[in-house]
């Protein structure tokens, strides 16, 4: 189920307040000692409930218009380096297991197994 937007939530709050005021007007209430100021439904509307200072900032200039793709070049460089390291590691493991490359390296450094 999709989430409610701020506008939908405020509209629901406005409906609840109107309903609450209407029920208080129509039903006889007991007199209480406390003086409660209940605002009328006409003072609440969607425009008064909105936050007017909220500004949504999007990207000021689209990258396709400026032609600056430095983030793309950096990502491709990382992908290339990691792919190259993975291939080198795979070749090293293959050489070690199939041709006993490790024994040849150790013999080269004078270590016998």
Explain how this protein is built.
With 113 residues, the protein is an all-alpha fold. It folds into 2 domains: 1-28 and 41-47; 69-113. It contains 5 helices and no strands. It has helices at 6-26, 46-49, 63-66, 70-98, 101-108. The longest helix is centred in the C-terminal third of the chain and has 29 residues, at 70-98. The radius of gyration is 36 Å and the shape is elongated. It starts with 5 loop residues before the first helix and ends in a 5-residue tail after the last helix. The relative contact order is 0.06. The model has no long low-confidence stretch (mean pLDDT 76).
Q: TL;DR of this structure?
A:
This protein has 113 residues and is mainly α. It has five helices and no strands.
Q: Can you tag this structure with a few keywords?
A:
mainly alpha, elongated, 113 residues, 5 helices
Rg calc: 36 Å
Described by strand count, sense and barrel closure, the largest sheet is: none
Number of helices: 5
The counted number of beta strands is 0
Average residue-wise pLDDT: 76
Oligomer status: single chain
Low-pLDDT ranges:
none
Shape: elongated
In helices, the fraction of residues equals 55-70%
Number of domains: 2
